[in-house]
Write a structure and sequence with these properties.
Blueprint lengths: L1 H9 L5 H13 L8 H12 L4 H8 L3 E4 L2 E4 L4 E2 L11 E2 L6
Antiparallel strand pairs: 1-2, 3-4
Length: 98
Amino acid sequence: NKVRYMLKHDMGSDGDFEFRRHELAMMKGLGTSEISDEAVVASYETWTAEGGSMREYLRLGQLALLLGNTLFVHGQVIGNQFSCCPGGAEQWSVRVVP
């Protein structure tokens, strides 16, 4: 399904779909086999919909912090618009999400 694909290939979060299934099963007191793919997708949709907890976190959270010359982020910054990049070479802070 599209959410599973996006987690694996776009977000570097392979396995998170199944982790979410386990989380839902634990929260509902069910076995993982009782949580359908559709229920997992619906939980992601609810999380990110207007008023959803993830949407609120992103709306209210500080996703990056610049302290002096140091930028702190959760994730990575990719680009070629940095003064430290000789000749416009693309720079990566991290190549693979562990």
